[in-house]
Design goal:
- The chain folds into 3 domains: 34 residues, no CATH class; 198 residues, CheC-like (Chemotaxis protein chec, 3-Layer(aba) Sandwich); 65 residues, Surface presentation of antigens (SPOA).
- It has 10 helices and 10 strands.
- The protein is an alpha+beta fold.
- It starts with 6 loop residues before the first helix and ends in a 9-residue tail after the last strand.
- 35% of the residues lie in helices and 24% in strands.
- The strands form 2 sheets. A 6-stranded antiparallel sheet has the order 1-5-6-3-2-4. It has a 4-stranded antiparallel sheet with strand order 7-8-9-10, with no helix packed on it.
- This is Flagellar motor switch protein FliM.
- Belongs to the FliM family.
- Its main location: other.
- Keywords: Bacterial flagellum, Cell membrane, Cell projection, Chemotaxis, Cilium, Flagellar rotation, Flagellum, Membrane.
């Protein structure tokens, strides 16, 4: 707290300045404080702010994909969103997670090394309860998984890793595969304790249950793609034009698409009683005059004006004009 001077102290200070006993310039120098930024060499910041922003964008997409996947698998309301992307030593990450939790250790070739998807027990057990047909309630006491429960979770999270591949495809094509599942963080050592890791934290809500999912990616794993984690590369990928081969493929597919075409001979208005009394041989007068062009409809849109005729004994029409888009047309 800043010290407040009394009136007598203020008077004494003013008197000293007036008499020359104190110099105002000396007071200003005393007030100058050197700005020193503390740097912890044990906690080196190896990801730039730009790279952290790119990781955030990638995993926001990952969160949306996981939301869709788990909503379909669990058949209940699921909401997953990124709440933070931090860089810290691996040892600090291990200390920050519960002593009993679900740790999915996976690799993603061609990236070298291993990553961890940590699922809070409340979230994991709620998921498993839903898969087994329950209401989705987490147990009061967390215990070791049985072999059957382990197999269920391994299958569920193996399929969830397909969304990791989809989220990263704009940067690199990876093939994630689950290598192991642990419950005790002390038995998991994927990098040295002082290695910098990126920790992406997801807030997860499944029905009435909330919890955290943490994705731990060591810096050494991302080193080959670090240059691509920049805003320049990100936006250049977004603006990338379709290649000539892709363009030709899309063109051929569109040109070979089939569309229904029909010709409207005319329209007429009759009463319900007239409609009910129609019989074979009755004539319904149409609004079109003889000699007027008919309307050809492609899909559900009027496109051409045509004249009816025949070719080699088959009914046909000849296109005489185009109908402009937005033109008035009454069916």
């Amino acid at each position: 707290m800043t010290e407040i001077l009394s009136q007598s102290e203020i008077d004494a200070l003013l008197e000293a300045l007036t008499s020359g006993e104190m110099n105002a310039e000396d007071l200003k120098k005393d007030e100058e404080i050197k700005k020193v930024k503390v740097y912890d060499f044990k906690r080196a910041l190896r990801f730039s702010k730009d790279q952290i922003r790119s990781l955030t964008r990638i995993h926001e997409n990952f969160a949306r994909l996981l939301t869709t996947y788990f909503s379909a698998q669990l058949r209940t309301f699921v909401q997953i969103s990124v709440i933070s992307v931090d860089q810290l030593p691996y040892e600090e990450f291990i200390r920050s997670i519960p002593k009993m939790t679900i740790l999915n250790i996976f690799s993603a070739p061609p990236l070298e090394g291993r990553m961890v998807l940590e699922i809070n027990p409340n979230v994991a057990y709620t998921m498993m309860d839903r898969v087994l047909g329950g209401p989705g309630i987490a147990p009061n006491k967390i215990s070791n998984l049985t072999e059957i429960e382990m197999n269920i979770m391994e299958k569920m999270f193996t399929n969830a890793l397909d969304n990791f591949k989809e989220a990263w495809k704009s940067i690199i094509d990876v093939s994630p595969r689950l290598e192991a599942m642990e419950m005790n963080p002390q038995f998991m050592q994927i990098v040295s304790p002082n290695e910098t890791v990126a920790v992406i934290s997801f807030n997860t809500k499944i029905g009435d249950t909330t919890g955290m999912i943490n994705l731990c990616i060591p810096h050494v794993v991302l080193e080959p793609v670090i240059p691509k984690l920049t805003a320049h590369h990100w936006f250049s990928q977004q603006k990338k034009e379709i290649g000539s081969e892709d363009y030709q493929y899309l063109k051929n597919r569109i040109q070979s698409a089939s569309l229904p075409i029909s010709v409207l001979l005319g329209t007429s208005n009759i009463t319900v009683s007239e409609f009910l009394s129609l019989s074979v041989g009755d004539i319904v007068q149409l609004d079109n005059k003889v000699g007027e062009p008919l309307v050809a409809i492609v899909g559900n849109e009027p496109k051409y004006k045509v004249i009816p005729g025949s070719i080699k004994g088959k009914l046909a029409v000849q296109v005489t004009d185009f109908i402009e888009e937005g033109a008035e047309f009454c069916e």
